[in-house]
Design brief:
single chain, about 300 residues, mainly alpha, 2 domains, 13 helices, about 0% strand, elongated, monooxygenase, transmembrane helix, aldehyde oxygenase (deformylating), aldehyde oxygenase (deformylating) activity
C-alpha cells in the first residue's frame, strides 16, 4: 500500500511530478495491500497459461497443414481430449500447489526487498534485472532438472512431465506438484538476488512462462524472434529431450544452451544434428538404440 494519500504527496516525496505510468500505478495500487498485489502473480500465470498456447493450438486444430512442415515431430498428433485433460490438471496444480506457495512466500518477497511503491523502475533497470533473473533461473534450473533425471527423481516425480514425448504449449507446466515447486525455486532466486519492483516481478514470471510455452510448443518456426537471442535453446532443442525420454542425458537447460555445452550434456543432440543436417526435425533422428549409445 502506498504511503501517500494524494498524488500531491507522492509528487512531493519524489521531488517531481509523477509520470503517466506512475499516475496509473498510484490510482490502481494506492489503497491496495501489498499482499493482494503479490497475489496478482497467480492470476497472471493462469491467464498467460490459458492464452499463450491458444493461437497455435487453434491453428493446429483448424488448419494443421498450414504449419505441419514446421512440426518437430510430425508423426505425432496429441488428441484434443488429452490436451483438455492436461489443461485441467495444470490449472489444479496452479491453484492447489502454486497458490499456497504464493501465500507462504509473500513475507519472503518483502524481506528480500521486492517493493510496490514509487518511483516505478526505468526500462533499463527492468531489463537488467530480468537478464539476471533469466541467467540465475537457467543455471540453477539446469542442475535441478538433471537431478530430477536421477532414477529416483524420474520415477517418483519427473516422469509425469515426460508423459508427452512430443510436447505442446499447454504441456509446458504439466508436471508433478513437487516438480512445480522444485523448479519454481530458481525462479524466485533471481528476484532475491536482485530485488526490484513488483511490476518487474510480475513481468518476469509472465515472460518466463511464455518462454516455457514456446519451448514446448512442438514447432520450429524459422522466423521466431527468440532465434535472435544468443545461446537460446528453443523448441527443437527441448523436443529432443522429450523425444529420448527417461534415458536422456541431454538438453536439460530451460532457456539457454551454454550449461549443456559446458558440461557436455548436449553431445547426443549435436551428433544427431550433424547426422540430419540435410533433413528437418526429430523425425530424421536415427533409432533409439543409437541415441542411447550416444548418450551413454
Amino acid at each position: 500500500m502506498l504511503p501517500y494519500a494524494t498524488v500531491g504527496e507522492a509528487a512531493a516525496a519524489l521531488g517531481r511530478n509523477l509520470t503517466a505510468a506512475e499516475m496509473a500505478w498510484f490510482r490502481y495500487s494506492a489503497g491496495m495491500h501489498d499482499f493482494w498485489l503479490y497475489l496478482h502473480n497467480l492470476v497472471f500465470l493462469l491467464v498467460v497459461y490459458t492464452v499463450a498456447p491458444l493461437p497455435l493450438a487453434l491453428v493446429e486444430l483448424l488448419v494443421p497443414d498450414a504449419i505441419h512442415k514446421y512440426k518437430v515431430q510430425p508423426k505425432v498428433q496429441v488428441p484434443v481430449a488429452d490436451v483438455v485433460k492436461c489443461y485441467k490438471n495444470v490449472v489444479k496444480i496452479f491453484i492447489f500447489a502454486v497458490g499456497p506457495l504464493e501465500f507462504l512466500s509473500f513475507h519472503t518477497s518483502k524481506w528480500v526487498g521486492v517493493r510496490t511503491g514509487l518511483p516505478l523502475p526505468s526500462a533499463w533497470e527492468m531489463a537488467a534485472q530480468l537478464t539476471v533473473y533469466f541467467m540465475v533461473e537457467d543455471y540453477f534450473g539446469y542442475w535441478l532438472h538433471r537431478a530430477l533425471h536421477s532414477r529416483w527423481g524420474y520415477e517418483h516425480i519427473h516422469s509425469v512431465h515426460h508423459e508427452f514425448s512430443a510436447p505442446f504449449g499447454f504441456a509446458a507446466p504439466y508436471a508433478h506438484w513437487a516438480e512445480v515447486l522444485i523448479l519454481g525455486l530458481p525462479a524466485f532466486l533471481g528476484p532475491a538476488i536482485a530485488p526490484g519492483h513488483i511490476v518487474t516481478f510480475w513481468l518476469w514470471f509472465v515472460l518466463r512462462h511464455i518462454e516455457a510455452v514456446e519451448l514446448h510448443c512442438g514447432y520450429d518456426f524459422p522466423l521466431t524472434p527468440t532465434k535472435l537471442i544468443p545461446f537460446y535453446g528453443g523448441a527443437e532443442f527441448h523436443d529432443y529431450h522429450h523425444y529420448v525420454g527417461r534415458h536422456t542425458n541431454n538438453n536439460f537447460a530451460s532457456v539457454f544452451t551454454y550449461c549443456d555445452y559446458i558440461y557436455g550434456t548436449d553431445k547426443g543432440y549435436r551428433y544427431q544434428k550433424r547426422q540430419s543436417s540435410n533433413s528437418k526435425g526429430i523425425s530424421t533422428y536415427s533409432t533409439c538404440t543409437l541415441i542411447l549409445a550416444i548418450n551413454s
